[in-house]
Amino acid sequence: MDLLNTKRELTQKTILAFWIPLAATWLMMSIEGPYLSALIARLAEPKFNLAAYGIAFSLALIIEAPVIMMMSASTALVKDYQSFKQLRKFNYILSVSLTAAMIVLVIPPIFYFITEGLIGLPKEVSYLTHLAVMILIPWPGAIGYRRFYQGILIRNNLTRLVAYGTIIRLISMTITAFILYKFTDVPGVVVGASALSAAVICEAIASKIMVRKFLIKLKSQLNEEQNELTIKEIIKFYYPLALTSLLTLGIQPFVTFFIGQSRMPLESFAVMPVVTSFVFIFRGLGLSFQEVVVALIGDNMAGFDQLKRFAIKLAMFVAGTLMLIAFTPLAEIWFRDVSGLSESLTEFAKLPLMIMSFFPAFTVLISFQRAVLVKANETKQITYGTAIEFVGIIVVVAICIKFFSLVGAVAATIAFVIGRMAACGFLLPPTISSLKKTNQ
Question: Which pLDDT belongs to residue 5?
């Protein structure tokens, strides 16, 4: 349904009301990283455990990447019971394959060759990372399972249930982390990884329970005309989406490799998950805007001007707020008192945060651009833009470390910002072209 056809005029108030629930969901998810990092920082050997947690999470993300877009796929493709069964079958095959990849990754000779031989991690950090990745084996399968069912909820206009699932995820994560933190002596990285695994498993189960009545409804309509969706058609639809998310999340292991070759690598590994998880709080508000634009811009892009005005305000708010923290003593309060970093790591984290303070504004911009391109059925341009960002990050981080000998965390954050700027610049012409074509 074109939401603009149901309203005579799209206003800033309408956009705000539509955006707030989606923003709240992303905001709840963004709390996970800082919360777990703060717990790990307050346990024994925080530098080693924070570094191991960040690396383990990065490895899990790259393997998880192909199922990230399963929510979009189920939202678009599950129109009846036949298409539900076909996409579920595809999702199961994909999720099992990724779980198998996780199992292969944790085989000691393979794992230690990657972490010590390629990345150059110290033995203490490599061992802790191995523990965490083993605990995260269920991660990709659980993510694929719950995103598949969440897409069906979204298709049935029940986004509030997706938010409820996120609340269940946070509660289960908090309970698991608190029990391990309070009543055991396990390393901090085990606390973080266990909390994450428990959270996504509980959310996946909750999503399946929430969608049951809609599956019963779909099954009852078997006698009606069904959409003959084939696995070949699913692969054709899903491949560009999977490639985009793979490129987006796949950059982290490459950055991790270069940080391992930089000056002060251990300190960089320790602060990067703290910095990036804090920045993600502000990035999440921008990421949530993409669905708003897709829903409200209209088939003829009639809502573009109002959405552009809202995007400018949102970009100024998220970047301005983060800059206010990054360039004032509030940064020290966050890193030292809230995140629990030592004085030395707190000082070390300040410059990377200053560099990343501009990033949320570009997140709003690229979310807006991607939404316009999705509406115009120009999704291949999104993949090209992501590929340019991917290459840009690798080139910049390599130059910063190999030729300018920058500290790893500083080089990485500079590369993230420049890579995103390159992607936004690339997407600008096709976005403008899509708008012109629609208005003709």
Answer: 46
